[in-house]
Amino acid sequence: MKLELGHRGDYAVRAMLAVARAPAGRPMSGPAIAAQMGVPARFLPQITGALVRAGLLTSRAGRSGGYQLARPADRISILDVVEAADGAGRRQTCVLRGGPCRAQGRCDVHDVFFAAQEALLGRLREATLASVVDPP
User: Fold this and answer.
1) Which of 20, 44, 110, 111 has CB atoms 3.0–4.6 Å from 106's, for a disulfide?
2) Best CA proximity match to 84, nearest among 72, 70, 98
């Protein structure tokens, strides 16, 4: 079983971690984020654009510009970041068939996998940037 982020989700999480670690009040430039977190510079504008549109980052142009968190790190969940980049993480297809569950309703393992998915999403919703940048 695979549990991994797509490239966009991966880059978004890394970018948000870099910005969350930056000194308070100091914007972080795109090139600095890319260099620090190993995010390809050519993809960073797409990723940061999605994060700005989702209300997770603010951006300021100019020489002293860059990116800052739009709200405190303890109010931004990992799920917020992943969904801003990759969309909602809820599985829409049957785990057995790759399409809709049986015509009668649900496949035999539907409830088990649905509960596991909800547990994962719940954990990502509980984990904030602050909790992973500066764990207690």
Assistant:
1) 110
2) 70
Residue 103 has pLDDT above 70, yes or no: no
Cα 99 to chain centroid, rounded: 26
Torsion of CA 110, 112, 114, 120, to 10 degrees: -160
CB 127 within 8 A of CB 78: yes
Domain map of the chain by residue range? 7-133
For the domain made up of 7-133, give the CATH fold.
Arc Repressor Mutant, subunit A (1.10.10)
Q: Which amino acid is at 121?
A: L
For the stretch 23-57, pLDDT in tens is: 888 999 999 999 999 988 998 999 999 999 999 99
